Amino acid sequence: MPNIMERARETSGRLAPIRLVESLNPGGIPGSILRCAPRWRLLCVVFAATLTWQPTPAAAQEPIVDGFRGHPWGSRVDDIPEIAETEQVGERERLRIYSTPVRLLGREALAGYYFHPDTGELVEGAYVMVMPLESCQTIWDLLTRDIQRTYPGLERQGELPSRRNAHRPVYESDCEYFVYNHHREEWRMGFGNPEPPHDEVRMWIRVNERTPRLHVEYRGERAEPR
User: What pLDDT, in 10s, does the model give residues 29-39?
Assistant: First the structure.
């Protein structure tokens, strides 16, 4: 039958890991691993390392969307010839907006450049283009394929309205169905980087008197979160 001293040594060995935990300071290191009984020492080391381990934040990768119309994020107004001699046309959420007429998929469009109010750096870019109703689906599909080909690392996000939801099959395309039902549907899609810096391209359509208007927004690593 074990005597009192043997029981004390056995109990001390069992409680060693608990004593080690109690000796930890927040964010610190164990007070003394040597206080463990020899047969518990390896367990104490492993247990202490587990408690003090902090996960390493995911490192930011190189941005996939690295600029707009060939101009890298961080460019200044004077660095972009097509707007260097123009005036600011407005603001959105404090971002300073400059614009210029361009061609997008062979059609007339407006390109908008968004600059940070404090640093003066280019942080976002966007296109706006009016589309004929009869070709809005074709234009959307062409631009979608172009974005996927240009930025293969982006993941497609969102679902679009479908004419399969219509009560009668009278629409030539999903886009036409949306134009006639925009009061209860939303046409929006995104292509996002699942990893930091979470850059992305957003696309959507607004309707004004049965005329679809395409919006495409390019957001880089310096874009304001919203």
Answer: 444 444 555 65
